[in-house]
Amino acid sequence: MRPPGPGEGVAWITGASSGIGLALAEAHVAHGWTVAVTARRVEELEALSLRFPGRVLVAPADITDPAAVRAALAPLPPIARAILNAGTYERDTADTFTAARLSRQVDLNLIGTAHCLEAIMPAMIAARSGQIGLVSSLAGLAGLPGSASYSATKAGLIALAESLRFDLRQHGVGISAICPGFVKSPLTAKNTFPMPFLMEADAAAKAIMRGLEADRFLIAFPEGLARPLRILRSLPYGVFFPLIARGTRG
Question: Of the candidates 216, 149, 146, 223, which has an alpha carbon nearest to the alpha carbon of residue 180?
């Protein structure tokens, strides 16, 4: 399926005030797109808009509020590409697990993304064109130590993208599951554990852009971390658990 280009509509990016979302907005502008940016922090979005006059459309919203999502999208031109990147991470383990922590991450990472999908899919289906990227994580490919709630939400996004792909492809709409590893951002800056293959946000944005332009379903990177994890996930649990525990010192 041919991915849409800059002349076919705007690119909408959520979680665009920092990290991967900000880098993706900058990369899309550099590739000729007009970009609509959504996040809760309006000041950061407006600063980005001032850097690229006329190329960045500010559409602030809290994606956990479906009415706010619809209001943010209402004045925008047609959306040709949507990268639903907004999300959060809270570390948890069995001894610190709470339903409240899980609920917060489900509300933003999973239900918030669903609000965005509900708002954009009908128009794309009617137009028989468009492209959607759901930003999951390598932690969505397998349950990893210290990320019980986070892995659950990110695995849900991958399954959501897989299921939607069957229907969307029949309507001429592409969808991808985007699974980054560790990327420098305000969220990962809080981590106190080793983060192998930690990469800059602009490098992550370039990897995502390449994957979207190639119409790949699973965009998982960096390869040095993604490939071993995919191999480990295919092994029997009797092998998987000891190897993951050794590799993560968990």
Answer: 223
Residues 45-99: tens digit of each pLDDT: 999 999 999 999 999 999 999 999 999 999 999 999 999 999 999 999 999 999 9
- State the burial class of residue 90 (Cβ atoms within 10 Å of its Cβ: 0-12, 13-18, 19+): middle
User: Which residues carry out catalysis?
Assistant: 150
For residue 16, what are its two tokens? 């665009």
Strand ranges inside 70-227, DSSP E: 79-84, 131-135, 174-180, 218-221
What is the distance between the alpha carbons of residues 199 and 131, in angstroms, rounded to a whole number?
A: 25
Residue by residue, DSSP assigns 89-123 as ---B-TTT--HHHHHHHIIIIIIIHHHHHHHHHHH
Let me know how many helices (H) and strands (E) the chain has, helices first.
9, 7
Angle at 27 between CA 22 and CA 29, to 5 degrees: 100
Taking alpha carbons only, the member of 188, 228, 191, 192 closest to residue 204 is: 188
Q: Counting beta carbons within 10 angstroms of the beta carbon of residue 80, is it exposed (0 to 12), middle (13 to 18) or buried (19 or more)?
A: buried
Write out the two tokens for 90.
Answer: 């809270």
Q: What is this structure's pTM?
A: 0.93
Nearest residue to 37 via CA among 70, 84, 1, 5: 84
**What CA–CA distance (Å, rounded) separates 107 from 166?**
25
Q: How far apart are CA 132 and CA 3, in angstroms?
A: 10
What are the tens digits of pLDDT across the range 6-26? 999 999 999 999 999 999 999
C-alpha of 177 from chain center:
8
Residue with tokens 């609000």: 115
